[in-house]
Recover the amino acids of this structure.
């Protein structure tokens, strides 16, 4: 009996898919980027490293190596190889201390925010040869585009700054749109810059001009925040307006990931919320990065610990060039 | 007895080909347009003009706007008007809604007042570099529960339309209607919900009152908020979307039940169609008759 039903059921199922695809309607609703398309059954946060002073600046290369900063360590930057071995990136140097944001650039160098010394620097790997790109800045986090535009947040100045990495020209490209600009990332095509607002409720998007200047600023993604229990209850509860939006990353499907007070919040390319991945610990989460050996480890820096979660998405390497967004088909 | 496997497979293939052709021939949404959606001889035609608008409220977005002026407009009469989201489809006289054709016909037969109509596309942030990817602003503009879209209409679009075409538009909210499909439908409701002093009439077809950006909260909000002076027409189809954002037919029934509970002036029509404009387009002349009944009396 089962043998009779099975091919029948299979073809009925295929018919069902045909019907549902043809009636799926507008393209905005065509892609399914809900969280179940990202999470893997049974996968949990795994500890990568423990006992750090203050973890931040997660990033990676296309060889599967993962890098992070322990802001209270002597060596500063550390490297985790695909087999899990951890070592200081520049064991002989103290140049890489107190890095709060790091990303690779198109020239293969690692660009870093060193707020303590008010400068942006770049390291050659493995030599550790350092160059100072800008001084007297208040850098928090950064991202580098394939075109060689380095965007950094100067959180206390409510400013987004662009450094042209070839000419070292430094330009304030947005002042005051965000209360506390913090993490940054790029769309797969690198035409859109996304910036989180630590003291606001949104992740903002900007259009990147051919000259590296920004316009078309928009509070495109609304970050879920906690309910204020002490506030007087109206029709809906009073929602905290502070997202604590921090470090950001992206995947090849165009999803945006942002570290927030509640955990990692994920948004689709149209700015709609895909969902929230609760954070692995109760302490604050400073940043996220999607990469690692297969490009599918979502790393989260949480003060003294770093965790990873395997997901069904692959990270992007913006320094290697822009790519078309990979669509996620709509099917159950 | 056991059927030969290959035979069975062939049989089911034939069966399902038959099923597909059957559903194609007699689809649930095989709605057809009536005579009020067709051009009629002797009915004067209004004028449709187009302009491109770069927004400040939705910073950096470009979009087309079409403006319909009724036939023989004398530039002294104060006109009621309608605004349409996803304007490019609604203004097209070959598609489901054919709004200019229907407005020509029904105003000529004095079944609705003479109206102006403004058709607005959703915004797009075009890329700066050649071959770049645009950022689509539709979901942000339409699905967000806030006053941002209605402010865009009031502060940017309406002043520009009046300035450009010398139209005199009524300030009476009962003479200002807003209409859309899908996310454009919830957008229409949000505009009137936020500013009932500005928009007193709403038409939502296959409206996305689902959790795309929190729109599923509207039934609860309607129930727990004093009635606002809005007349609401809702249409949906029983085979509309059922996806990760929600179930459209259920969501629209919840909307209708909430509007009924708060004694709104509303009408809900549930057809058998899917996520398209066939059903709503076929009843659109009647929708306008219901929406504009009693206006100006």
């Amino acid at each position: 009996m089962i043998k009779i039903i099975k091919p029948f059921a299979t073809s009925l199922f295929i018919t069902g898919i045909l019907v549902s695809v043809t009636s799926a309607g507008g393209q905005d609703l065509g892609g399914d980027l809900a969280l179940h398309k990202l999470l893997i059954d049974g996968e949990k946060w795994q500890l990568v490293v423990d006992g750090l002073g203050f973890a931040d600046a997660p990033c990676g290369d296309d060889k599967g190596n993962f890098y992070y900063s322990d802001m209270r360590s002597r060596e500063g930057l550390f490297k985790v190889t695909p087999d899990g071995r951890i070592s200081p990136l520049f064991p002989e140097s103290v140049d890489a201390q107190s890095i709060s944001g790091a990303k690779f650039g198109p020239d293969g160098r690692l660009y870093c925010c060193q707020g303590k010394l008010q400068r942006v620097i770049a390291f050659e790997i493995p030599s550790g040869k350092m160059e100072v790109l800008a001084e007297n800045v208040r850098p928090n986090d950064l991202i580098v585009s394939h075109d060689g535009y380095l965007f950094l947040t100067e959180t206390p100045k409510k400013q987004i700054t662009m450094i042209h990495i070839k000419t070292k020209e430094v330009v304030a490209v947005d002042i005051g749109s965000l209360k506390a600009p913090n993490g940054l990332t790029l769309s797969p095509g690198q035409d859109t810059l996304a910036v989180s607002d630590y003291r606001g409720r949104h992740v903002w998007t900007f259009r990147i001009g051919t000259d590296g200047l920004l316009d078309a600023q928009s509070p495109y993604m609304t970050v879920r925040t906690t309910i204020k229990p002490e506030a007087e209850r109206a029709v809906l509860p009073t929602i905290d307006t502070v997202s604590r939006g921090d470090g950001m990353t992206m995947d090849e499907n165009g999803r945006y990931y942002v570290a927030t007070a509640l955990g990692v919040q994920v948004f689709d390319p149209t700015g709609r919320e895909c969902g929230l991945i609760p954070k692995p610990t109760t302490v604050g989460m400073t940043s996220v990065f999607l990469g690692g050996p297969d490009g599918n480890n979502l790393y989260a820096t949480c003060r003294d610990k770093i965790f990873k979660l395997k997901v069904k998405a692959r990270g992007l390497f913006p320094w290697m060039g822009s790519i078309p967004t990979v669509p996620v088909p709509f099917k159950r | 007895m056991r059927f030969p496997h290959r035979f069975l497979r062939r049989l089911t293939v034939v069966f399902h080909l038959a099923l597909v052709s059957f559903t194609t021939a007699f689809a649930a949404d095989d709605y057809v347009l009536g005579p009020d959606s067709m051009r009629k001889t002797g009915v004067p035609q209004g004028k449709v003009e187009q302009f491109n608008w770069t927004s400040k409220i939705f910073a950096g977005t470009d979009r087309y706007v079409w403006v319909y002026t009724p036939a023989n407009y004398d530039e002294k009469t104060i006109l009621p008007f309608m605004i349409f989201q996803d304007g490019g489809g609604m203004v097209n006289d070959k598609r489901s809604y054919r709004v200019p054709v229907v407005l020509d016909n029904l105003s000529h037969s004095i079944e609705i007042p003479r109206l102006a109509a403004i058709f607005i596309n959703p915004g797009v942030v075009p890329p700066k570099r050649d071959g770049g990817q645009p950022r689509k602003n539709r979901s942000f503009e339409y699905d967000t529960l806030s006053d941002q879209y209605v402010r865009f209409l009031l502060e940017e679009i309406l002043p520009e339309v009046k300035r450009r075409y010398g139209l005199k538009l009524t300030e009476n909210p009962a003479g200002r209607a807003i209409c859309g499909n899908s996310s454009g439908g919830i957008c229409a409701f949000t505009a009137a919900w936020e500013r009932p002093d500005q928009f007193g009439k709403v038409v939502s077809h296959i409206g996305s009152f689902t959790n795309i950006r929190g729109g599923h909260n509207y039934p609860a909000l309607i129930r727990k908020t004093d009635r606002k002076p809005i007349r609401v027409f809702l249409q949906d189809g029983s085979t509309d979307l059922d996806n990760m954002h929600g179930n459209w037919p259920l969501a629209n029934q919840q909307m209708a039940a909430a509007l009924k509970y708060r004694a709104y002036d509303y009408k809900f029509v549930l057809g058998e169609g899917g996520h398209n404009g066939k059903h709503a387009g076929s009843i659109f002349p009647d929708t306008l008759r219901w929406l504009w009944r009693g206006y100006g009396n």
Notes: The mean pLDDT of chain B is 92. The CA atoms of residues 127 and 133 of chain B lie 6 Å apart. Chain B has nine helices and twelve strands.
